[in-house]
C-alpha cells in the first residue's frame, strides 16, 4: 500500500536531516519531518476503521512538501556555520527571581482572570450540572466564531497568557541552570491556572502549546549547558517520548471534560487526532486535486490577517469530511491543504521552502545568541512562535493563525511582563550564577 511507501520515504528524509544537523533532534527540519512520520504511522492503525487507501498524489504532496521545507532549512544550515567555541554557560547565565510583590500580583491577576473566564463559561452554558455538559454547551455556542467572553476578559486573558509563559521561561531557566526545583516551583502557578481555564474553555490547544514551548525551552537551555555539542541529549529525548505518550493518554482521557462526546477506544481516538490529518489530506486531494481553488488571494492561508483587516471571507474552521466507511474523520488536513487550496502545488512548495529557511535561520540565530547570553529572554519568543511548526502534521497555523495582529500583541506583552518582573522594580535579579 502507498502508506507504507510514504513511511519509508519519510524515514529516509528524517535520517538525512538528522545527520545533516549533527543529531540536533529539535531542529525545525527534524521535527517537521518526524511529525509527518509519526502521523503516518498512527494513520496505519486507521486503515480498517476509516478505509484508508492513500493515493500516489497524496504521497507526492507530502514527500515534496517535507523535502521543500528541509531544503529551505538546509540552506539556512549551510549559511550559518556552527560555532564550536561556546563559552562555559556558568560564566554568563542568569538566575531570574522577580520581586516578590510583583510575582504575587501576577498570580492574583492570573487567578482573577481565570475565575472571570470560568464564571462567564458557566453563565453562557446556562447551568453547572457536570463539567462535560458545561464545556459541551460552551463549545457548541461558540463554534461559529461568536465571542462568548466580554471584551475586557479577552484582553485580560492575553496578559494572563503572557504572564504564564514568561514565568514558565523563568522556571525552566532557573531549574536547568541551578538544579533547584522547589525554590522555583511558585513560577508554575500561572501556567497551572492557564490549564484550568483552558479546560473550562472546552479547549486543549493551550495544553499543546504549553507542552511544545516547554520542550523547546528545555532542548535549547539544556543544549546550552553542553555548548550545543554532540546533538540532543538522549535522556531528554526519552523524557520527550514518555511525556508525549502520557500527554496523549491524558488528551484522550479528558475528552469529556472539554465537551467532546466521542466514545471510541483510546487508541482509535488518539490515532484519529494524530494520524487522521493524513487521511483528510488524501480525501481533499481526491476531491479537489492539487491546483488552486481559492476565490481570493490567500483565502485560507492568511485568514487571521485578513480578519484583522476586515476582509476575511468564510470561517476559520475548515469543512468536515467523512471516510470511505462513512465515519466522520474531522477537519484538520495537515499544513499542506491550505497552501494547496490557495496557491496550488507549486505555491505550496515555495511557501514550505521559505518557512523552512525562516524558521531554521531563526532557530540557529537563537542558538548563537544563547551561546553569548545563555539566559536571553528572546528564547521565549522563538519557543512560542515555533509551536505551529511542530503542529504542522496536524494543521496549518503558521500563516493562518500566527501571522496576524494578535501575535504582535503577544510579543509586546511578553516584553512588558518581562520588563515589569525584572527591570521595573529594583532587584538583584537576574543575577549571574558565578
Total individual domains: 1
What sort of overall outline do the alpha carbons produce when their principal axes are compared?
globular
Q: How many E-type strands? A: 4
Structure classification: mainly alpha
Helical fraction equals: 55-70%
Number of helices: 16
Beta-strand residue percentage = under 5%
Which blocks of ≥5 consecutive residues have pLDDT under 50?
A: none
Strand order of the largest sheet: 1-4
Largest sheet: 2 strands, antiparallel
Please give the radius of gyration in angstroms. 22 Å
Mean pLDDT, to the nearest integer, reads 88
H and E order = HHHHEHHHHHHHHEEHHHHE
Q: In whole angstroms, how far apart are the ends?
A: 59 Å
Write a compact overview of the structure shown.
The protein has 434 residues and is mostly helical.
Account of the 3D structure:
- This protein has 434 residues and is an all-alpha fold.
- It has one domain (1-81, 96-434).
- It contains 16 helices and four strands.
- A two-stranded antiparallel ribbon has the order 1-4. Strands 2-3 form a two-stranded antiparallel sheet.
- A hairpin with a 5-residue loop joins strand 2 (321-322) and strand 3 (328-330).
- Helix 2 (28-44) packs antiparallel against helix 4, helix 5 (100-125) packs parallel to helix 8 and helix 7 (151-178) packs across helix 16 (405-422).
Amino acid at each position: 500500500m502507498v502508506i507504507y511507501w510514504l513511511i519509508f520515504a519519510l524515514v529516509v528524509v528524517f535520517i538525512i536531516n538528522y545527520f545533516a544537523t549533527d543529531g540536533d533532534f529539535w531542529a525545525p527540519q527534524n521535527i517537521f519531518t518526524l511529525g509527518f512520520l509519526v502521523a503516518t504511522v498512527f494513520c496505519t492503525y486507521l486503515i480498517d476503521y476509516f478505509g484508508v487507501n492513500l493515493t500516489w498524489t497524496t504521497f507526492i504532496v507530502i514527500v515534496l512538501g517535507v523535502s521543500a521545507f528541509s531544503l529551505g532549512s538546509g540552506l539556512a544550515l549551510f549559511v550559518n556555520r556552527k560555532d564550536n567555541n561556546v563559552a562555559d554557560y556558568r560564566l554568563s547565565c542568569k538566575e531570574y527571581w522577580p520581586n516578590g510583590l510583583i510575582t504575587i500580583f501576577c498570580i492574583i491577576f492570573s487567578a482573577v482572570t481565570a475565575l472571570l473566564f470560568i464564571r462567564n463559561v458557566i453563565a453562557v452554558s446556562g447551568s453547572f450540572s457536570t463539567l462535560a455538559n458545561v464545556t459541551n454547551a460552551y463549545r457548541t455556542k461558540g463554534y461559529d466564531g461568536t465571542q462568548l467572553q466580554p471584551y475586557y476578559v479577552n484582553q485580560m486573558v492575553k496578559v494572563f497568557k503572557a504572564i504564564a509563559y514568561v514565568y514558565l521561561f523563568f522556571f525552566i531557566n532557573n531549574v536547568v541552570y541551578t538544579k533547584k526545583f522547589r525554590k522555583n516551583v511558585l513560577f508554575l502557578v500561572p501556567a497551572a491556572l492557564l490549564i484550568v481555564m483552558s479546560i473550562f474553555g472546552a479547549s486543549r490547544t493551550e495544553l499543546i502549546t504549553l507542552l511544545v514551548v516547554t520542550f523547546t525551552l528545555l532542548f535549547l537551555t539544556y543544549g546550552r549547558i553542553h555548548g550545543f555539542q554532540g546533538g540532543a541529549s538522549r535522556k531528554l529525548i526519552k523524557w520527550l517520548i514518555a511525556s508525549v505518550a502520557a500527554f496523549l493518554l491524558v488528551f484522550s482521557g479528558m475528552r469529556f471534560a472539554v465537551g467532546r462526546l466521542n466514545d471510541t477506544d483510546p487508541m482509535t481516538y488518539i490515532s484519529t487526532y494524530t494520524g487522521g490529518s493524513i487521511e483528510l489530506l488524501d480525501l481533499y486531494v481526491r476531491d479537489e486535486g492539487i491546483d488552486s481553488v481559492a476565490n481570493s488571494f490567500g483565502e485560507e492561508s492568511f485568514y487571521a490577517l485578513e480578519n484583522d483587516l476586515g476582509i476575511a471571507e468564510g470561517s476559520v474552521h475548515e469543512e468536515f469530511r467523512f471516510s470511505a466507511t462513512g465515519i466522520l474523520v474531522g477537519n484538520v488536513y495537515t499544513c499542506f491543504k491550505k497552501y494547496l487550496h490557495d496557491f496550488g502545488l507549486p505555491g505550496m512548495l515555495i511557501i514550505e521552502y521559505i518557512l523552512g529557511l525562516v524558521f531554521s535561520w531563526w532557530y540557529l540565530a537563537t542558538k548563537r545568541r544563547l551561546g553569548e547570553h545563555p539566559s536571553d529572554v528572546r528564547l521565549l519568543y522563538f519557543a512560542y512562535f515555533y509551536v505551529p511548526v511542530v503542529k504542522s502534521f496536524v494543521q496549518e497555523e503558521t500563516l493562518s493563525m500566527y501571522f496576524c495582529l494578535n501575535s504582535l500583541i503577544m510579543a509586546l506583552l511578553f516584553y512588558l511582563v518581562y520588563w515589569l518582573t525584572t527591570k521595573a522594580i529594583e532587584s538583584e535579579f537576574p543575577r549571574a550564577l558565578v
